[in-house]
Amino acid sequence: MIEVNFHAEASAEIEATMGFYDSRLEGLGLKFLIAVESQIERIAEFPNSGYGIDQGLQKVVVFGFPSSIIYRHAEDHVLLLAVAHDYRRPGYWLGRSQ
């Protein structure tokens, strides 16, 4: 397994999205977190398994939610750039990839 690092804003997005889902339905935020963690484990084990997108970035879908994890695979680690809603503000995270 490869080391997974988080961009600070990606961590904040996870927390904010969990809060949003919990405000809608008690426990839904935890289900979101579990789905995100499951995909992060997959990324750590198979870092090249994501769908290729712009500028060498990859993404995986968060199952059961309209979100994707955007990341860059370097030689010895993965950097998670965003946990982004699939339909809101497309590409807002592109500046994080620099």
Description of the molecule:
A hairpin with a 4-residue loop joins strand 3 and strand 4. The chain has a single domain (3-97), classed as RelE-like (YaeB-like fold, 2-Layer Sandwich). The protein has helices at 8-24, 28-45, and strands at residues 3-6, 51-52, 57-62, 67-73, 77-85. The chain is built from 2 helices and 5 strands. Helix 1 runs antiparallel to helix 2. Strands 1-5-4-3-2 form a 5-stranded mixed beta sheet.
Task: Name the quaternary structure.
Answer: single chain
At CATH's second level, what is the architecture? 2-Layer Sandwich
Please state the CA-atom Rg, rounded to the nearest Å: 13 Å
Shape: globular
Please identify the top-level CATH class: Alpha Beta
The tally of domains stands at 1
**Number of separate strands:** 5
Helices, by number, come to 2
For this entry, give a set of tags.
98 residues, alpha+beta, YaeB-like fold, 36% helix
Task: Summarize it.
The protein is an alpha+beta fold and 98 residues long. It has a single domain (3-97), classed as YaeB-like fold. The chain has helices at residues 8-24, 28-45, and strands at 3-6, 51-52, 57-62, 67-73, 77-85.
Describe the secondary-structure layout.
Layout (H helix, E strand, L loop, with lengths): L2 E4 L1 H17 L3 H18 L5 E2 L4 E6 L4 E7 L3 E9 L13
Parallel strand pairs: 1-5
Antiparallel strand pairs: 2-3, 3-4, 4-5
